């Protein structure tokens, strides 16, 4: 498996510094948080996008994905949501990223079946656009659809290989799903896996990998047992937790922890 980290852990950090962290600490790739407060977002002009792609190529680091904030199950008109996803897909294509992350974001007051249908319709609408540009749109296990079982209620009806799943191991655990259950549900659709660690279900402040309660060993075990060889991406949510330790100081130890889990599971 290849290892990456998300720029959510280094909010606002210039790209040259992000790339230096990746090369210094031995990470193969970067998940780019696509937000206007970050260096990479859908508002970039063509020349800026080309510069991003060139910088990663020169550094020998891969862009794993573009982590966007479109909420595909949110109530309202389809048009603005579909265009937001398309904009992320175009950005991913232009900078050389294979994946785009979207959230579910359903209204809990609506029937689940209605929200599922909204999300499936919108993802189905953008699927061919994504395919034409060589990008996969991944629905993250998050908020209203935090388990694998919930995510496949959307992904199953879409039935397109350019629409898949991003397994956030914290949310499936918070949803009461065991890693073996999450993998079984998501395996046919799985794009990559976000790993992290937290103190408890009540305290989701990010911790160094291995210092918390999330079942990382079990997650890596089930992936290895089934021969899955994709990406593990450390999503350290520093942007939302000012008190969390700075990510640069723990990146090296995090990589060693993941490599140890992979070695033990082999």
What does this protein look like?
This protein starts with a strand and ends with a helix. The chain is α/β, with parallel strands linked by helices and 266 residues long. It contains 9 helices and 8 strands. α1 (15-25) runs parallel beside α2 (46-59), α5 runs parallel beside α7 and α8 packs across α9 (251-265). The relative contact order is 0.14.
Question: What distinguishing features does this structure have?
Answer:
9 helices, 17% strand, alpha/beta, eight-stranded parallel β-barrel, single chain, 266 residues
Structural class: alpha/beta
Span of the ends, CA to CA: 11 Å
General form: globular
Radius of gyration: 17 Å
Mean pLDDT: 98
Number of helices: 9
The strands making up the biggest β-sheet line up spatially as: 1-2-3-4-5-6-7-8
- Quaternary organisation of the protein chains: single chain
Order of helices and strands: EHEHEHEHEHEHHEHEH
User: Unreliable runs, pLDDT <50, ≥5 residues?
Assistant: none
Biggest sheet record = 8 strands, parallel, barrel
The beta-strand count equals 8
Q: Strand portion, in percent?
A: 15-25%
Helix percentage range: 40-55%
Give the helix/strand layout.
Blueprint: E1 2-6, H1 15-25, E2 29-33, H2 46-59, E3 62-71, H3 78-95, E4 99-103, H4 112-132, E5 136-140, H5 148-158, E6 163-168, H6 169-174, H7 179-186, E7 190-195, H8 216-225, E8 231-234, H9 251-265
Helix pairs in contact: 1-2, 3-4, 4-5, 5-7, 8-9
Summarize the structure.
By secondary structure, this protein is of the alpha/beta class. Helix content is 43%, strand content 17%.
């Amino acid at each position: 498996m290849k290892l990456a980290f998300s720029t959510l852990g280094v909010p606002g950090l210039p790209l040259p510094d992000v790339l230096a962290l990746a090369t210094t600490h031995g990470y193969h790739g970067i998940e780019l948080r696509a937000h206007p407060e970050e260096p990479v977002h859908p508002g970039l002009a063509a020349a800026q996008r080309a510069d991003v792609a060139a910088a990663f190529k020169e550094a020998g680091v891969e862009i794993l994905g573009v982590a966007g904030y479109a909420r595909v199950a949110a109530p309202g008109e389809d048009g603005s949501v579909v265009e937001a996803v398309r904009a992320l897909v175009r950005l991913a294509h232009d900078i050389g990223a294979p994946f785009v992350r979207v959230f579910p974001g359903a209204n809990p007051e609506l029937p689940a079946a209605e929200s599922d249908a909204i999300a499936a319709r919108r993802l189905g609408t953008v699927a061919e656009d994504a395919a034409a540009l060589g990008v996969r749109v991944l629905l993250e296990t998050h908020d209203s659809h935090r388990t694998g079982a919930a995510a496949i209620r959307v992904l199953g009806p879409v039935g397109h290989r350019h629409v898949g799943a991003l397994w956030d191991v914290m949310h499936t655990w918070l949803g009461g799903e065991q890693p073996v259950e999450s993998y079984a549900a998501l395996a046919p659709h799985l794009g990559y896996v976000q790993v992290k660690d937290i103190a408890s279900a009540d305290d989701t402040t990010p911790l160094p990998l291995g210092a918390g309660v999330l079942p990382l060993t079990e997650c890596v075990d089930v992936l290895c047992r089934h021969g899955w060889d994709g990406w593990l991406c450390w999503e350290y949510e520093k942007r939302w937790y000012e008190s969390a330790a700075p990510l640069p100081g723990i990146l090296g130890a995090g990589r060693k922890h993941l490599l140890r889990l992979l070695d033990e599971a082999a």
